[in-house]
Amino acid sequence: MTVTSRTLIKNLLAATDGSVSVSGWVETIRDQKKVQFVVLRDESGAVQLVHPRLFADDGTAAEDAVADTISALTQGTFLTATGELKHDERVKLGGVEIKLDALDIAGVAIAENPIAADSGIDKRMDWRFLDLRRPEQNLIARVQSTFEHALRTYWIEHDFIEIHTPKLMASASESKAELFEVKYFEGKAFLSQSPQFFKQMAQPAGFGKIFEVGPAFRADPSFTSRHATEFTSVDVEFSWIDSHEDVMKLHEELLVAGFTAIKAKHGDEIRALFDLEVTVPTVPFPRIPLAEAKRIIAERGYEVPRHDDDMDPEGERQIAAYVMETYGHEFVFLTDYASSIRPFYHMRHDDDPGLTNSYDLIFNGVEISTGAQREHRIEVLEAQATQKGLDPEELAFYLDFFRYGVPPHGGFGMGLSRVMMLLLHQANLREVTYLFRGPTRLLP
């Protein structure tokens, strides 16, 4: 018998009985006296392999190469199995099984798996390549791929241009306190905290609508469940807006597109593995000015303890709970942040310069994004930078963007892993990040 092509396990149920070849890694082995069972898993699912041991007429064990191979198998070994596919509704694992003809070992697992089902997250991160074999982790990666694809589809269909900004910078893009400094030939450079300046540069360049999905770096010694020193940022910037309302409208349309695609493609799997129902949010998302949000949560019995004008994590959870109770919505835009806590490039209100045309987007009680209308008038931008104590000479390359004509514009930056974490109700960003980087983790 010759089988020339590999079949993904997820496609076996729809295949006809007969010769088949599957490839993956050994998940479990039951080596019994009369029959052997192997559960083989690939990137799409798991299937049961069956091999009845061979016996001579007198009942003694006969020569059986397949049985010998199975008896020597170790969990995690990668192999190709060839045999006869049989549909059988009595088989709990997918309703099919494969009666083995041959096994071809590709990569032997020479040691026992160092992590177990009850291993802590730090131990699992040490052995991340093994932790990623779990079906839940495989699904997280595929959900993220579907989400990004849906966003890109939206962008391309709406004439956005994808850009790739440099991650080595000569100066800070936002806060000097969160910079990673690196040696750069005879001088020094900094890892980009954000593509903010460069995505704004695309506006006087005449690109109009741009997006980028790429890495960002923050030298922030935070050990919370939602922070990382390197993360994937989803960024958008576009011209000819009237206010930050235009940015919010685009932002919610993108998320609806992404969640719609996830629900259609992975809704059943998410329900099975995470016991969750994906909810596609309705538009428009609720919008609450920050000052009003603070009054609402104060009436709920929580006073934000910060000395500045910002919201804190518990305040975000409280306002999210209020929005769910009042509107039945998982998202809320908190708008009109004080200029004292916003970057110099956020446009301020015409009638109240103490407020900005900006927002934070809260999803299931956690901030996932900041967006704003940018200040595009050079004289106002210079004045706001000076008010923030910034050196115009260090910002010269950025300020030059605005000296040669620039349209009104705005945009947002959004943390990809935070969206995945909150969508799938995971407790820690590390669960949804392929390889996490934090203050104490640079391996693997």
What's a quick, concise take on this entry?
The chain is α+β, with helices and mostly antiparallel strands and 444 residues long. It has helices spanning 65-71, 121-126, 128-131, 135-157, 196-201, 244-274, 290-299, 313-327, 378-387, 396-399, 416-423, and strands at 18-31, 35-42, 45-52, 78-87, 96-107, 161-162, 168-169, 181-184, 187-191, 209-217, 230-239, 287-289, 331-335, 358-363, 366-373, 409-415.
Output the keywords:
about 450 residues; OB fold (Dihydrolipoamide Acetyltransferase, E2P); BirA Bifunctional Protein, domain 2; 2 domains; eight-stranded mixed β-sheet; five-stranded mixed barrel; about 25% strand; elongated
Word description of this protein:
The longest helix is centred in the middle third of the chain and has 31 residues, at 244-274. The chain has 11 helices and 16 strands. 28% of the residues lie in helices and 25% in strands. The strands form 3 sheets. An 8-stranded mixed beta sheet has the order 6-10-11-16-15-14-13-12. The radius of gyration is 27 Å and the shape is elongated. The chain folds into 2 domains: 9-107, Nucleic acid-binding proteins (OB fold (Dihydrolipoamide Acetyltransferase, E2P), Beta Barrel), CATH 2.40.50.140; 129-432, BirA Bifunctional Protein, domain 2, CATH 3.30.930.10. β1 (18-31) and β2 form a beta hairpin. The model has no long low-confidence stretch (mean pLDDT 95). With 444 residues, it is an alpha+beta fold.
